[in-house]
Amino acid sequence: MATKILKSSDSAYHYPLLIKQLLTSVQRFENENVIVSGEYRFSYAELNQRIHRLANTLKAAGIGPGDTVAVMDWDSHRYLECFFAVPMIGAVLHTVNIRLSPGQILYTMNHAEDDLVLVHDDFVPIIDGIRDELKTVKGYIRLTDDTDSNDTDFDSLGEYESLLAKADTHYDFPEFDENSVATAFYTTGTTGNPKGVYFSHRQLVLHTLNMVNTLSTRDSNAPLLPHEGVYMPITPMFHVHAWGIPYAATMMGVKQVYPGRYEPNTLARLIREEGVTFSHCVPTILQMVIQSEEAANTDFTGWKIIIGGSALTPGLASHAMEMGIEPFSAYGMSETCPLLAMSRIDRTHRDLSKDGQVGWRTRAGLPSDLVDIALWDADGKVLPHDGKSTGEVVVRAPWLTESYLHEPEKGDELWQGGWLHTGDIACIHPNGVIEIRDRIKDVIKTGGEWISSLDLERLISQHPQVGAVAVVGVPDERWGERPFALVVAKSEALSVESVAEHLQQFVDAGVINKWAIPRDVKLVADIPKTSVGKIDKKLIRAQIG
After folding, report:
1. Residues marked as catalytic
2. N or C: which end of the chain has fewer CB within 10 A?
3. What's the predicted TM-score (pTM) here?
4. Could you tell me which of 52, 112, 391, 371 has the C-alpha nearest to residue 238?
């Protein structure tokens, strides 16, 4: 029997899911909360007005539907305004990863076919070095944190704040196909040039709605981010739209604090002075904040923070909880917009000791709404969710990138079999909780046994004198591979021998086998990171080699 489809009225309004619709709620919150960014403090009414001014500024610069606007900035009110104004006029927002090498930045800007670049003073030297090789850029707008200074030879259309001040306060934002591309950015792969991922208006609106719901349901005590909360991102806004949370925070009308360049003492001070209640970042940034000098003067009690990008280790989770911080883990990737899953703390978990809660807080958690997650073996066979079977995580959701920009053949690889392949190895427990075991490329094969580098990192991190750790596999003539660990010590009391002794207790308990104890442990001052703060295992392997 066929499904029934009724003809709608010709005069009915067919509501497109466009980013501009996320701002309708701003009218309810106009004077309740503020946006804080450096010396700027303004209401949501002013934010709305500034978005209109920016749209008119872009139009005056010759930007229209289908054009691409690149942004090179720290986390700021300017970036938030670009998140809305650029796609709302029908253009594409390219959030440039300013931590790539100049050559890679040049590649991404040419590949994205950028038309206009909004560039902060700090990144003008990069632009000056590649300007002659940019093929499609027609103009620049200067971004600065020192509006009193005109000491620059940079040839631009003008300074951001000055241009906005001259622009009209109303822009008639058009309606168009909700499947139009809204944003694009580049993810660094293991080989070759960065790959461009892109998202439509429809995908970003659906992701935002789901993010709001997820933030409201993952803590039995209270939402992670209520309307009365104070939000500060500690994730670069060029990285997956700061995980899409600025869109959700704006829709919810919460107070937002944008910290500019990440400096641990500044972040701790802002948490204290602005009353920040919710943030998100990678583990290394959290560690730097809680170890900063300002942390000693800051009460972190009640600060809820989502950790993603890399695994939250038990050691770091315990340390954070001792300081009154409530950490949660989230799971996703650049290609997934990024939300796929998040840990949930219910009333039964609240009754546990802090140590008892750590296991729940460090797992990837439960899938978010509208997310289908499965485990496949190497032959594409679906594996059971029994907490034991491990396989690759494959996903479906309405906000996943459908391909890579200008590289459909790589998109076909990503979507083999009609599911997006994450490259992550995991098990899924009968209660639906996802436990990431490793990246496929990071699993260590030794003597015919598979060892998870993440599992070893979790165990080593529980050593009281270990501040940070990274484990990779290195070639071994006899065993194929053996684990190699880089360890950052909390104090001079840590020795290489004590790390092996610490792991031996887990061998004796049957948690790991004896071959899992790293062949080499190297004490280092820091561990190599990627441009977004993740542990760079590719670089570590290359350095060891």
Report:
1. 187, 335, 445, 450
2. N
3. 0.86
4. 112
Report the residue count for the chain: 545
Q: What residues contact 242, with CB distance under 8 A and at least 6 apart?
A: 75, 233, 235, 236, 280
Cis peptide before 16 (omega within 30 of 0): no
d(CA 35, CA 501): 50
User: Domains along the chain?
Assistant: 19-199 (3.40.50.12780), 262-371 (3.40.50.980), 443-544 (3.30.300.30)
Q: CB–CB of 411/420 below 8 Å? A: no
Q: Phi and psi of 75, rounded to 5°?
A: -65, 115
pLDDT tens column, 256-277: 999 999 999 999 999 999 999 9
- Smallest Cα–Cα separation from 111: which of 199, 200, 201, 194? 194
Give pLDDT tens digits for 362-411.
999 999 999 999 999 989 999 999 999 999 999 999 999 999 999 999 99
* DSSP class of 61: T
CA angle 118, 305, 357 (to 5 degrees): 160
Q: Judge contact between 68 and 180, C-beta under 8 A.
A: no
User: For all residues of the chain together, what is the average pLDDT?
Assistant: 92
Contact 427, 421 (CB under 8 A): no
pLDDT in tens, 167-225: 999 999 999 999 999 999 998 754 578 999 999 999 999 999 999 999 999 999 999 99
Residue type, 534: K
Place of tokens 């899938």: 367
